Amino acid sequence: MADCEQLRDQYEAYALGALEGAERDEIERHLARNCPVCTQGVAEARWVVAQLSYLSPDAAPPPALRYRIISEASPASSAHPTPERTWVPAWAWAIAAALVAMTIFSTYQNHRADRELTALRQQIQTAESQGQQLETERAHYVMATEILMAQDAKPVKMMPQKPDMPMFHAVCSQKMGVLVMAHNVPQLPSTMTLQLWAVSKQGKPMSLGMFRPDQSGEAMMVMPSSADMSQIAALAISEEPSGGSLEPTSAPVWVGPLS
Amino acid sequence: MERLIQRDATALEELYDRYARPVYSLVLRISQQPASAEEIVQDVFLLLWRNAARYRAARGPLEPWLFTMARNRALDFLRLKREKQRRREDSYEVELPDSVHAPNPETQLDSALRAERVQACMGSLPEAQRRAIELAFFEGMTHSEIAKALAEPLGTVKSWIRNGLIRLRESLESSSAAGTGKG
User: Which CATH fold would you assign to the domain B1-89+96-101?
Assistant: First the structure.
């Protein structure tokens, strides 16, 4: 058996996975018997090799990935969207309301306080409006989480039928509904919308609703359970005029069979 | 990590926000498929979440450990795609990489400086030598496979890889020792 000094020069190649045959076996024999020298040497070599990761071209993961990971890890946790969006935290309302009360009691005859009061009222109105939007979006994410976590949830990959289009991920649950989502979806003209269809085994499409990608290319739609999923052969998404169509007016851009 | 072991999801969010981008960059570079890269990154972070208790400080700093786990899974995907080996069964017990230790923990550069140092060091290598290391790291090739791909003698490839990584290690350590590193 080779001694550790003879193996030292091969630690990096081993950590890289480039070593093969008898050379690799020799190091593995040392590691298997917990040789302290080789164990420490290989651990350090792994560290060096790991630094090569920095040669990778920089690429940002899609925001939806964060949501999926956190939702699966802890469904009860709030997997808020990434910080790219502007959110008005709920505590801002309480602080705004408290500032208004303090201003009224202490400086209501002060001209500067009157101006601040007016500004705060405007902020509260803005916060209320944003809060309603927040609540709507929160409800969507809650429904999406319920679909993802449903016991009968089935994933469906909706493949693009056109080149350079991203894939849609769908989850179907008879009990909770249907969720579709994708990122990097190209923007649509204001006169068009995406429409989700459930295609029956007889080939008849039934509309599940309309949605549009946001400015960052994120597209998501949740639909409560309505159709009998056992009679559905596939999900499809087509581009339709704004307001939707009774039947698809063009070939679907995305199709996902339910296996 | 303690908060992660105690199932604090905000700890996972913090780790994701800190490490997801470089991990995803690595996995995408290896797999070349965004959809697969997403799945692999998801696996890596969920593996960490589900096995946090098994991760000990003795395994070393988290970032290189995450890189190692992500690279292993991405190369598994690559090999599966090439049908070179039978697919390993999913088993969290098997997937965790062993210890990953910095050679000199007391004088380590922060990740941004390390990235610069790695790119500078690799950029200074001759093209063929750099290519040999990249084939091993990003494609999972062995010495003999690289020698065949580059039409170079086996001994030359072994020397290139050994000397290139020794040079990288010395570059990272010497920058720290010169006092430019941060603890």
Answer: Rna Polymerase Sigma Factor; Chain: A (1.10.1740)
